[in-house]
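Limitations

Structures in this collection are predictions, not experimental determinations, and the ligand pose is part of the prediction. Treat each record accordingly. The example that follows, with flavin-adenine dinucleotide as the small molecule, is included so readers can see exactly what is and is not provided: the inputs are given verbatim, and the output is the predicted complex.
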Amino acid sequence: MNDAPLDVVVIGGGQAGLAAGYHLRRLGLDFVVLDAGSGPGGAWQHAWDSLHLFSPAAYSSLPGRLMPPQPGETYPGARHVVAYLTDYEQRYELPLIRPVRVEAVRHDGELLRVEAATGTWRARAVISATGTWGRPFLPALANGAEFRGQQLHTVDYRSPSDLTGRRVVVVGGGNSGAQIAADLAATTDLTWVTQRPPRFLPDDIDGRALFDVATVRRRALDEGRTDPGGVGSLGDIVAVPPVRAARDAGLLQARPMFSRLTRTGVAWADGTTAEADTIIWCTGFRPALSHLAPLGLRRTRGHIPTTGTQAQGEPRLHLLGYGDWTGPASATLIGVGRPARDAATAIAGLLGQDRGPRR
Ligand code: FAD
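Predicted complex:
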């Protein structure tokens, strides 16, 4: 047990946890960031080799410090993001403790108790920023199948060289599915399968425009106007250069979703089949929230309902990152700064009222 209670424990040291740390530090709060990772960078450490951001560096920055451009690349690669996040946490001397996987957050009188195998921390407030990478989602079709080949999820995919010459089915019409299909198109016998026809954003639209949409949305919500909606109406897939090249070469022809797996591949309802050595499920993620279960908070569609970032039913808990439900674009580098500031400010306000004399 770490004896003296802290103001705040941040759980998760990816970009969302760092943005929270930046604002907590500015507000002079006493905090630690507990991170299960072995090193800095959050999910970006585990991305596949060719993953590039869908926005230029200047549009991929956390509060306080612009991401420097990556020489020779308009859209920085994942390793560049890891280097930026490494520098960020050092520059702001953020109190990261690694590796610490938080197993449970519990009520402890006026405090919250944060438990891990390696220690226990007590805090007046908690920010949970554990992301989604740790909870890959697989549809029911992937389970209990007789398929004898290899099944991977986005989180398992690293490089086309691992699959050269194989028959590969990539499932998913989002950015991950499109990018991995493009990565594999030239060197494998590829079948790309999407639930609905792939919707490419116009070629001149990248993450900058998506962020602009999120900004308009936030402004409308702040002013109590009707939610104008997110970016869904624009399309799903940012046509980053490798995706655009594969699409324009005619290599990204999507087939509709198959209805079942066979021993040796996949089968559609009309009786057609495709043989496969490997199926890659690019079917998304769910928020990694199991450590919050002991708090007994209500769940809606796998989320903990929030007002802004604050958990409904537990004002000492804030959720950051994860998806638009914790703030427009809060699961992006540039978008997480604002909700991080809101969470830190709300906690400072709460502690200002409740804290009383400090230890
Ligand atoms: P993460 O980066 O996942 O960090 C969470 C951290 O919490 C990890 O270090 C993890 O180890 C730790 N953790 C988890 N559980 C626990 C626990 N119980 N106890 C302690 N620590 C824990 N965003 C952009 O801005 N631009 C892009 O171009 C872009 N492209 C993307 C492409 C892909 C394919 C994907 C999947 C995402 C992309 N994103 C992009 C979205 C977004 O930036 C990432 O999802 C981002 O990693 C989310 O950051 P995070 O800090 O919320 O979570």
